[in-house]
Amino acid sequence: RVAVDYASHTRHVEDIRDTLAEALKVTAEAPVVPFFSTVTGAWIEDAGVLDGGYWYRNLRAQVGFGPAVAQLIAQGHGVFVE
């Protein structure tokens, strides 16, 4: 567990980058069910994508929910699960 005394998706996450890097050492396997990432703006299907760096970016960056939904609608999707 990482103590939470910062606001996610802000520069304050940068203060705990080293702690997160240690905590987020994971084996990045391919997801069983592909999903559309609000971090990358693309489908996640391959091994190696969901590594610690991905999860750090997920916590640090602004959430791209609107652009992701727009892309999925353009691809013909109409039902979404967050």
Structure keywords:
82 residues; mainly alpha; two-stranded antiparallel ribbon; globular
List the topology elements.
Layout: H1 17-23, E1 35-36, E2 43-44, H2 52-60, H3 65-74
Antiparallel strand pairs: 1-2
Kindly describe this structure.
The protein has 82 residues and is mainly alpha-helical. It has one domain (11-74). 32% of the residues lie in helices and 5% in strands. The protein has helices spanning 17-23, 52-60, 65-74, and strands at 35-36, 43-44. Strands 1-2 form a two-stranded antiparallel sheet. A hairpin with a 6-residue loop joins strand 1 and strand 2. The radius of gyration is 14 Å and the shape is globular. 1% of the residues are buried. The mean pLDDT is 88.
Question: Outline of this structure?
Answer:
This protein is mainly α and 82 residues long.
Total number of helices: 3
Report the biggest beta sheet as strand number plus sense, adding barrel if it closes: 2 strands, antiparallel
* Spans where pLDDT lies below 50 across 5 or more residues: none
Number of domains: 1
Beta-strand proportion = under 5%
